[in-house]
């Protein structure tokens, strides 16, 4: 009979409000840990995708640079690169630079005539 009463006392202790409250707090801590873990997993997945895109861009850039290096090994490739990138010309050749003056002059003239507020009105079409 004592054994039965001892088990009953243990059950009463385990089902008491303070013990249940403590168990509930522990459960909440575990749930909070799981949700933060899911958040970190999502963030890690996003960072992985960003890193993969960067890696692909860097690999494409590496291929382009290798092609440029290969192209610079001969004279025709050097000449093409210098002409396209730096605007250089052979001796006796001229370089023509085309500037669209219509748009740049209008904005400068309007700004000089009307001032700051006139420029703002012209920008918004008033």
Summed up:
By secondary structure, the protein is mainly alpha-helical. The protein is 83% helix and 0% strand.
What does the secondary structure layout of this molecule look like, with pairings?
Layout: H1 2-14, H2 17-71, H3 75-86, H4 101-124
Structure commentary:
The structure is a single chain. The chain is mostly helical and 126 residues long. The chain contains 4 helices and no strands. The longest helix is centred in the middle third of the chain and has 55 residues, at 17-71. The chain is elongated, with a radius of gyration of 38 Å. 0% of the residues are buried.
Distance between the termini: 98 Å
Task: Please report the number of helical segments.
Answer: 4
Report Rg: 38 Å
Using the alpha-carbon principal axes, give the shape: elongated
Q: Helix coverage percent of residues?
A: over 70%
Largest sheet geometry: none
Q: Which regions have little confidence, pLDDT < 50, spanning 5+ residues?
A: none
What is the strand content? under 5%
Overall strand count: 0
What class would the helix/strand composition place it in? Answer: mainly alpha
What series of H and E elements makes up the topology?
HHHH
Chain-averaged pLDDT: 80
